């Protein structure tokens, strides 16, 4: 929720251990039916998502259903007694989800009109201060000018919603737009919560997990005073777009999100008339777009003017781990905010380490306690419990569940407290955990190493005390890219920079069923922040396309932190574009970008033709008038994207872009380039002169790189178009493996 002081890959990290890994996507060809690993018996029923050619135009919903039933066995009820046809899709694509055996699926693939099939997969779910951190102030400036997102409908695909939470009160929220067509099946529906429906096999939209309540309130929760989680983070909570409407599509449970249900939610949201979709979930990284039902369904939404915002994933800091990398999606990475739940570790040598603690149980201790650290029991597993009583134990972090159980055992054997330090990969990212009433302080990897060294050097004289200073604001440096946030480049589309944008996703306080507010982390939490920002822009500029709104958000983003330096990553090294995307979202500037890089269905279709050919076009783009024979093939690097990716080579390479003037009618922009010594940039023309709103200008950028070190994987610069009122900035990334021919789609 926002106002406050991520089931692929965006899961709240607290829930990470509860979900099984996403299985690989298995493509079933027209005459070959393969069952994914684990389904070994031919008679076993599985759910498949089946794409077919559409029925004649003008066919109603019931007609679609009858057409789909012609592909099924004569018995519409399986041996288990369950209906074979689970979901009928109309808006996302022409097709259905059905329970079939392997032999039955093989028969379906041979019927005229069959296109392809996917085994259903289980996907994973990936505050009182964040609006203020993003520059939003109640009653003033851009937030007020945008009407807090009034009139905009945000659809969320998630775990449901706790409808009676005060974040979903409708005071000050206008009636829903007359075009709204959905029902609301919740305990309380009003002008705020205007849609709530379940696609998980029942009509219960209640949120038994909490995740959907959290993301909904982050995007568009109303103002709630005195919000806190166990007394920390206290303040007035609100979503980023508190005046917007919420529509919840329950497609996930505690066990995960079935892809067939996600598609059913997408289909319904498009029919209902949402303005944007917020998906804190995604499919596997590395899956071709024409084999990814989420990317296919989202394209249908984009083609109808619906913005689709998705999480980048929680597989960081591993390179090439980013999910949701289709260029028609707005892909969000997670960063920190300038707030710390401060707890100090005071050492006997006079040094103090700034840590964080979730619970106010960490109160000042007048007497120092002996510190205990064992390299043999570094992770506090199978520890020698006879030596822990009355001591503060130093442990390195492991998995969330192991941390909880190990610390519980330590406290049960009389430990005075625990200092839990990060592993090397997590670095400076402290993912706040709730250890009930246990006295636990979490510190960074660097501080943990120093603390372990102190306990060993001081031996029996090593002592420490804890202090708890509650919530501290203005922490520097911030934002910092969170360690768990997935990184680019995309393995599917390396010529398009992903992730797109960085937003708050670390230790975010938002609404929860019980307690009423909860702090969790993940790119799931970052995604609704950007959804809320997009809603604010949509409210001000309802005529803008999804690509224009994305461009506005990217080209106005911040690349510096709150001390004027570059945004850093979890190691406190300079974050790259593959860590943070274009930069950190800046709502006020995004509302007035000056210029935008726009894209429409035909542009994306040309790109799909280049990448995946006619088969890919037919699968993804539901427009029979568009064929690859009639469309110019658009290479990834030449797509009119607001970021630029080029080959890392000494030979000059030229890309072109077109910008549209959405600022003052008469305006002049000058090109300003910023690049390292190894990168040479030439822009032509160097000046863009506009005489009217909506006018378009095309320019080219030629890039060459010399003297690049063997260890350098990519080189990064930027191009900014600067006028008297605006700075329109685009990162330029030169990397190996782009700019050539697309590989043929795999069978």
TrEMBL record:
The active site is at residues 158, 211, 524. InterPro entries: Peptidase_S8/S53_dom, Peptidase_S8/S53_dom_sf, Peptidase_S8_Asp-AS, Peptidase_S8_Ser-AS, Peptidase_S8_subtilisin-rel, Peptidases_S8_3, S8pro/Inhibitor_I9, S8pro/Inhibitor_I9_sf. Residues 638-733 form the Subtilisin-like protease fibronectin type-III domain. Gene3D superfamilies: 2.60.40.2310, 3.50.30.30, Peptidase S8 propeptide/proteinase inhibitor I9, Peptidase S8/S53 domain. Its main location: secreted. Keywords: Glycoprotein, Hydrolase, Protease, Serine protease, Signal. Residues 1-24 form the signal peptide. One of its GO terms (cellular component) is extracellular region. One of its GO terms (molecular function) is serine-type endopeptidase activity. It is found in: Secreted. Coiled coil: none annotated. GO terms for biological process: proteolysis. Residues 149-560 form the Peptidase S8/S53 domain. The keyword Signal applies. Residues 47-126 form the Inhibitor I9 domain. Belongs to the peptidase S8 family. This is Subtilisin-like protease.
